[in-house]
Every structure is written in structure tokens, then in C-alpha cells.
Amino acid sequence: MDTTTGPPSPDELIDWLAARLDRFDPDQRLTPLTLKAAHPGLTWTRARNALYELYSSGLLHRTGRGSVYALRPDLPASGGGHLWLRLANRTGAAIEVIAAVPRPPTPYQSETTRVRWICHGCARGEADTGFGAAAEQAERHAAICRGEDLSDLAG
Predict the structure, then answer these.
(1) What predicted TM-score, i.e. pTM, was given to this entire model?
(2) Mind giving me the DSSP string for the chain?
């Protein structure tokens, strides 16, 4: 696709992006700004719509943060690590329990691995605890937090 001939059609843009997904780091979050950097002629809205189409087709995964997508389903909304649990607070903002490694298959391993939780609505969280304790803390926080869901404010 030639960026000097004007903006691509929606179908051209989706084809262009789908053909280049393997060029993105598997741990990278894909946002409209990421896409705009890869294709300077795009508007934010067109980039957001293209990412949503790829999510709808199953090529991308939502991270729980609006307009932020990932190639792998176990990535948190931001930062590094692996998503073990995602909840929502009273306004819909993501609350995530995250560890440095993928979630193990046995409960014993889950309890011995250190995890952290973070609320993307109010930025509260706790670090370095067992999964059971972190999940309970995150659930209690989700029930009371009214931190703003910022996922749709950029659009």
C-alpha cells in the first residue's frame, strides 16, 4: 500500500495490517497510535476501526482497555507480564491480577508464584502476594471502586 496516494480503503487497511501482524512483538500492545506510527497517513479513528475489525475476526485479543489489543490473549492492558485474572470495577475499568509467568495448571503453583493486582480506574494495587490473596483483594476492590473507566475517552 502506497501512503502517498491518499488514505487506504477500509478493506485495504485491514488487509495491510493482517499481512504485517507477524512484524509486531508478541508482547506488544497494539493501539491506534501504534498503527499510525506504522502507517503515517492514518487517522486515529480509521486505525481504531481496523484494529477492532481484526479483533472481531479473531486475529487480535482485547486487553480490557479500550482500543488496546494484543496478539496473545494473556497480556495485561499495559506493562509486562501475563494476565491471570481480569475483573471490572463499578464503572467498568479493568482490574487485573498479573504475574511474570503464564498461569500454571496446578493450584499449588498458583499460590507459590508471586503476583500483583492493579486497578486501571484508580491506579491502586498491591504487589508480591499469592494468587489467592491477590484475587480476593482485587474482588473486594472491584466491588467498591468507582475509578473512572478511561477506555472510551480517547475516541
Answers:
(1) 0.66
(2) --TTS-PPPHHHHHHHHHHHGGGS-TT-EE-HHHHHHHSTT--HHHHHHHHHHHHHTTSSEE-SSTT-EESSTT--SSSSSEEEEEEE-TTS-EEEEEESSPPPSSHHHHHHS-EEEEETTT--EEEEE-HHHHHHHHHHHHHH------TTTT-
Q: Which residue, 129, 123, 121, 109, is CA-closest to 147? A: 121
**Which amino acid does the sequence have at 140?**
R
Tens-place pLDDT, residues 80-106 = 889 999 998 888 888 999 999 888 888
Euclidean distance between CA atoms 14 and 131, whole angstroms: 39
What tens digit of pLDDT does each residue of 12-50 get? 888 888 888 888 888 888 999 988 888 888 888 999 999
